[in-house]
Sequence to fold (320 residues):
Amino acid sequence: MKKTLQLSISFIIFTFALINMAQTQPEASKTPTDIPTEQQNTEIEERNNEEPRYTQEDLSIIIGNVQRPNGFAWLNNTLYTACNGDWTLYEIDDSSGSTQTFLFGIRNAHTLYAEETEAGFDLWIPDFDLNTIFLVDQSQTAAQPIAENIDSPWGIAYLDESRFLVTSLRENKILAITRGGQSIDLVENLSSPTGIAIEENESDHFIYVGNTGSSRRSIEWLTLEDTELRTLISGLRNVTGVTLAADNNLYFAYSLGTRGVIGRVNPTTCRDNACTSEDVEVVLYSDLPAPLAGLEITPDMRLFTHTIYRPEIYWVQIEE
Fold:
C-alpha cells in the first residue's frame, strides 16, 4: 500500500511537470538571455528615479493577421513582417491592421531594412534560420538570395549606396555585405550581437551594436575608420532592437526583470562618456514579456513594437 501511494505521488508530480513544460513560451530564436532573479524583479521600480514616459496604458494596439511575427520594417504606412510559423512575409496597414500575404519563403527575420526605389521598394531581409540575406521587391516574386552562409544573421543597417552591415549572432561579428553579395568581416569578438544602427556625419560613420550576451557590453560603438569596440551603454540586459530616430536619439529594446522595455540616450553624450543603465531614459515600460522583438520608429515619431511571437502589434506617438 505504501509503495502504491509513493508511485501515485510520483506520477502526479511528473504530470504537473509535463503540463508546465507544455505551457512554456518559445525562446527568441536561440538568442541567449540573462535570466532575471526575484531580486532583479523587485528592484525594477527602484532603478528608475524618473517615471517612464509611456506605460502599457498608453499603447494602442494593431491586431494583424500574423500569428508568430518577429521583427518588422516600416515603409509608407505599411509594416512588413515575417511569420516564423508559416514562413510567410506579410504586409500590414499601420492604422487598420489590415493584413495581406506578400510572399512565401522567409522563415525567420529579426530585423528587415526597407528602402524606396524608382520602381517601388526593396526589402533586405536577414533570414536567421536559413543563414541567408534575401532581397524582395514590390513585384512579389520569389525572394532572391543575395548572400548565403552568413551564420545566424540578426541585425541589418544601411551603410552606403553599395553596402549594408549585418550582425552574426553566433559568430559574434559584424559583416559588411555588398548589394551583390560579397562580404567581409568588419569586426569580431562581440557578445551575441543583435540590433545595429549607423549614424553618419561629415567625416565618418558611428556604428552602434547591441550585445544580448553581455550586460557589461550592452551597447558598443565603433567607426569605419577605427573598428576598436568601445562601450556606449553598460548595465542593460538582453538588448535586441537598436534604431536611430528622427529626434537624433538612439532607441533600444531590453529587459527589466521579465518586462520588455524601450529606452533611449543621446549617443553623442554616451560616446564622450560611456553611459550606464542609470543614464537611460525609459521611454516605454510595458507589461509585455521580454524580449520585445520588433522595434520601429517612423519619421513622424510613431513607435511600433511587439513581444516575441505574439500577433498583437502596439504603437505610441512619441511627443517632444
Notes: Helices lie at 2-22, 38-42, 44-47, 267-272. The chain is about 10% helix and 45% strand. Residues 38-317 form a domain with the Neuraminidase fold (CATH 2.120.10.30).
